[in-house]
Write a structure and sequence with these properties.
single chain, about 240 residues, alpha+beta
């Protein structure tokens, strides 16, 4: 019909192509913003931790340490998932003990179920040999297990027993370490996870620490070691000299 507008046969494709190009650039810009924000947050954290480490006489080490878990194989918290590495490692002497504070990264799942996890922890070296011990926050799975007879160690403090799940291959050792004064000390702080290997105490939570939280974790680790009874210190020292 005369006077009718003519439609470009490729108009639909051109319009769709334009929309796709627009979506692509929006994605690129958003990705760049996210990368920039992540880099900025990392720089801010590194600066804050450098200040904290300097104030505690520790040295902040650069780079990622992918072999961290292999040097401390007894600690299950360091062996979760894949793509594991420690970073923001701060080491040195603190209160006459060798310490290492750090952030930790690992990944679980894949594809749409892929999740990146980060938490912080401190490692404190003991002056005497230790024995395996795990003290972690009680959770719902632990309570279900108790209903089926899979109980952990119980203590005179019902508050402590409700708050923490305690495991050790040597029950006597667990009770020697977690005596009344140490239990009272631990209950003064928010719940942290604690584990011994043969020479270190690891304190961690499933989140990243700020400076004050790193201080708190160091206090817990050294506080537990400082409260080891004299007979335990003597016993462990004698085992080294045998």
């Amino acid at each position: 019909m005369a006077g009718s507008p003519r439609r470009n046969a490729d108009g639909g494709n051109q319009e769709w192509g334009g929309e796709m190009t627009g979506f692509f650039w929006v994605f690129v810009v958003l990705a760049a913003v996210l990368v920039g924000v992540a880099a900025w947050r990392s720089a801010v954290r590194k600066k804050a931790l450098t200040v904290w480490a300097d104030s505690r006489g520790l040295t902040l080490l650069a780079g990622r340490d992918a072999g961290f878990d292999d040097r401390y194989p007894a600690f299950g918290a360091l062996r979760r998932g894949y793509s594991r590495y420690a970073h923001h490692r701060m080491e040195g002497q603190w209160n006459e003990r060798r310490v290492m504070a750090f952030d930790y990264h690992y990944v679980t799942g894949s594809g749409k179920n892929r999740q990146v996890h980060q938490f912080s922890g401190v490692l404190v070296e003991s002056m005497v040999p230790l024995k395996p011990l795990l003290v972690r926050s009680e959770n719902i799975l632990d309570r279900i297990g108790e209903a089926f007879g899979m109980d952990d160690l119980d203590f005179e403090s019902s508050e402590f027993s409700r708050a923490y799940h305690v495991r050790s291959s040597n029950c006597r050792w667990a009770y020697d370490v977690l005596h009344a004064r140490t239990i009272e000390f631990l209950l003064q702080y928010p719940r942290h996870n604690l584990q011994f290997d043969e020479r270190h105490v690891l304190i961690w939570r499933d989140r990243r620490f700020d400076a004050a939280s790193f201080d708190q974790a160091l206090m817990i680790a050294t506080g537990v070691l400082d409260r080891l009874p004299d007979y335990v210190l003597k016993q462990q020292t004698e085992e080294v000299n045998r």
